[in-house]
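Course assignment 3, question 2. Fill in each field.
Student: A.L.
Task: Predict the tertiary structure for the chain below.
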Amino acid sequence: MDNFLATKRAGDIYVRHIRDFLASNFYIADVKSLSATQSLLDQGIVDSTGVLEIIGFIEETFGVIVEDSELLPENLDSIQGIAQFIARKRG
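Answer field:
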């Protein structure tokens, strides 16, 4: 349970960086209303090519490698999911 809480807190640190990246690289009508938990694909913010851009951002910015087996919606489809994925990888 302690590892889960530590990962969650660390993930929260990355949310701002991820939101800033999305706002700079994708069309978002109202960045302030962008929910950290909603699906980026379902909202039409990113498509399959956008996922590749997010992977590049993660690898360059946070120094982690995204393995093929980690290309899962729970890791890459929301701001919160991305942040928690980075926190786990950097653990």
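Instructor remarks: The mean pLDDT is 89. Residues 2-25 form the longest helix (24 residues).
Grade: pending
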